[in-house]
User: Which sequence fits this backbone?
């Protein structure tokens, strides 16, 4: 399985709590990849190779609009066998808000900004775009994430949406399509964070930590290795604990004084406690940081236990 597919599986399994976000997700998929089908009465058609995405589409229509879609499975032969799920949904007046043209004859390829007033919806919309036309490289050498479209207005809108969320994207042509893409691990990590792909985020962060640890090792060849390994192990443990808490939504319960230390730890996984101390405001001594870190670890462990 491709890495893209893993990330899509994760994203497809997220069900936003709010209705506004579920609509935004669906609208994104329709704007990017939907078409109007006249075969058995008027319907909106969406195709995907990802089964979890097909389920998400089906469930959203059903639970938000109480409309029953039909799903057809087609086996297509590319390089390897792929299955395509084709979802057809009878057009209902209510679906107009998702981006069908007034005369219900076509789907305009553009973002409906009216659906994106809230930041929760903007994130959900991005998730929908990625599910419908996204691709991401496995973290490693070439950091690349893209969303493909056949339409220049849509490409322009996607770039605008990403810019609004502080992610600089570019557009390039590929055969008859346009590709809106993001390069660089930091921007891709931002994207994954926005769309809520926490597992993928961990893949990227782990590689980043390993790389920065390596750099650190290179920088400090004279440093006693055992000591460094100890520092790194402790840091990895701390970062993992804190991230676990962030993913379960419990991070707000950390007292503010300790929270700033937690955030510094995540941002600078390869720094020693002494270095973290100099970054604090006001600065703290190494022993002061060590004391707070012990406290932080204890609190985080307790909070995670509470949640679990
Ligand atoms: Zn929302």
Assistant:
């Amino acid at each position: 399985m491709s890495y893209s597919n893993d990330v899509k599986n994760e994203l497809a399994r997220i069900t936003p709590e709010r209705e506004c976000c579920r609509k935004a997700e669906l609208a994104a998929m329709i704007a990017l990849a939907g078409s109007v089908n006249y075969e058995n009465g008027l319907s909106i058609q969406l195709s995907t190779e990802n089964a979890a995405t097909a389920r998400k589409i089906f469930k959203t229509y059903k639970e938000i609009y109480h409309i029953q879609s039909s799903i057809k499975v087609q086996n297509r032969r590319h390089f390897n066998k792929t299955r395509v799920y084709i979802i057809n949904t009878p057009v209902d007046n209510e679906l107009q808000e998702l981006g069908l043209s007034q005369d219900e004859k076509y789907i305009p390829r553009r973002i409906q900004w009216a659906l994106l007033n809230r930041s929760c919806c903007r994130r959900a919309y991005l998730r929908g775009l990625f599910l419908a036309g996204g691709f991401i490289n496995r973290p490693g050498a070439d950091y690349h994430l893209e969303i493909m479209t056949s339409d220049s207005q849509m490409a322009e809108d996607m770039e605008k949406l990403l810019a609004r969320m502080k992610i600089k994207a570019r557009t390039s042509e590929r055969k008859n399509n346009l590709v809106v893409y993001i390069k660089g691990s930091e921007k891709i990590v931002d994207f994954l964070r926005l769309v809520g792909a926490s597992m993928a985020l961990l893949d990227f962060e782990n590689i980043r930590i390993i790389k920065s640890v390596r750099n650190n090792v290179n920088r400090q060849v004279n440093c006693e290795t055992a000591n460094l390994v100890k520092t790194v192990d402790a840091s990895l443990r701390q970062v993992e604990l804190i991230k676990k808490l962030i993913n379960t939504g419990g991070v707000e319960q950390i007292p503010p004084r300790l929270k700033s230390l937690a955030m510094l730890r995540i941002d600078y996984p390869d720094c020693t406690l002494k270095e973290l101390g100099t970054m604090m405001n006001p600065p703290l001594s190494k022993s002061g940081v060590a004391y707070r870190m012990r406290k932080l670890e204890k609190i985080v462990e307790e909070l995670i236990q509470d949640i679990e």
Summary: The chain has two domains: 3-193, 220-307. Residues 220-307 form one domain. The pocket of zinc ion is lined by residues 18, 20-21, 118, 120-121, 124 (CB under 6 Å).
